[in-house]
Design a protein that fits this description.
Heat Shock Protein 90, five-stranded mixed beta sheet, 59% helix, 3 domains, 8 strands, 328 residues
């Protein structure tokens, strides 16, 4: 209401000034020379007053428009912040849900795996070790069941910290070779895989199952990125500074910039339903952090993707493998 009254007064003032100008013009026509000079000066002053009033009114209108624009921007920022916090809350709720579900079914899975492991060991004791075929097959069943138990435990760790993990001395090249052997059945027909392993005499300290899952997730992710297209996957190990680097790179379609920051979010996936759960990279990131390392990604749309894992190198005092329990 105040703004309306102010605008009305300014308008009335301008109209009055214009009316005075018209009157002055009429007087000048019939006035003497001296009077014309005086009235002309007054006319100039009145014109300047009108111009000032018009300028001030325009400036106020612009300031008001700028203030309204800033208010709209602030409301938009608040809405974006609210949306972001809502999405983060949804992520946390999903993590809690999967943690609860995993905890509830972990016992049932262990009940199923226990007899598999038990009977596998009993069968191994009865088989001669020189019986290459049957002995190796049963040993593979036992090892797979052990890994299955560890994977269930790792899935639970997405929503539960301070979990006991067994660490040991690991050779990166041996780790990569084992993982590539496990991943070989999933290798697409048109994809070639290349190894560049340069850490035959280097070691890291970590949980072998967790690190194997990390590398396997990155390799499977590269396979899925290439799909049915002709492509290459390069797996590299190398010593970089005080770290051991394990890199998985592909020449696939790459990751668009607008989703690059989201790829490590749990449940985030661009794959079609039934192909991915959106947990692979989240688990990989957590595994790297659990080993005091980091996971970095380099990618560009149409330029392929490279995931690099950096784990601190373990310098051995003696050539021996050792175990301990980490309660971090």
């Amino acid at each position: 209401m105040r703004n309306l009254l102010k605008n009305t007064k300014r308008t009335e003032l301008i109209e009055a000034a214009l009316a005075a100008l018209l009157v002055a013009l009429g007087i000048i026509v019939g006035a003497t020379t001296a009077s014309r000079i005086i009235l002309g000066g007054a006319l100039v002053l009145a014109g300047m007053l009108i111009a000032s009033l018009i300028f001030m009114q325009g400036k106020r209108d612009m300031m008001k428009a700028d203030q309204e624009l800033e208010a709209l921007k602030e409301k938009n920022r608040q809405m974006e912040e609210l949306t972001r916090k809502t999405q983060e809350l949804a992520h946390h709720q999903r993590l809690e849900t999967i943690g609860t579900l995993t905890s509830s079914i972990a016992h049932e899975f262990n009940n199923l795996l226990t007899p598999i492991m038990g009977y596998s060991l009993m069968t191994l004791e009865k088989l001669p070790q020189d019986a290459d075929g049957p002995y190796d097959d049963v040993l593979e069943i036992y090892n797979a069941s052990v890994k299955a138990k560890d994977i269930i435990s790792r899935l639970s760790e997405l929503s539960r910290k301070n979990t006991e993990m067994r660490f040991e001395t690991i050779n990166p090249d041996e780790l990569v070779n084992k993982v590539l052997h496990v991943a070989s059945p999933a290798l697409p027909k048109k994809v070639d895989i290349f190894r560049h392993l340069r850490c035959a005499d280097k070691y890291i300290e970590g949980n072998e199952t967790q690190l194997s899952q990390l590398v396997l997730n990155l390799i499977i992710n590269a396979f899925q990125a290439l799909g049915d297209e002709r492509g290459e996957v390069h797996v590299t190990t190398n010593k970089i500074g005080s770290d051991i680097m394990i890199e998985v790179a592909d020449n696939g379609p790459g990751i668009p910039d607008d989703i690059k920051e989201k790829i490590f979010d749990p449940f985030f996936t661009t794959k079609e339903a039934g192909v991915g759960t959106g947990l692979g990279l989240a688990i990989a990131l957590q595994a790297a952090e659990d080993h005091k390392g980091r996971l970095e990604v380099e990618s560009g749309e149409g330029k392929g993707t490279s995931f690099k894992v950096y784990i601190p190198e373990l310098v051995l005092q003696h050539d021996s493998r050792r175990f301990y329990y980490d309660y971090e």
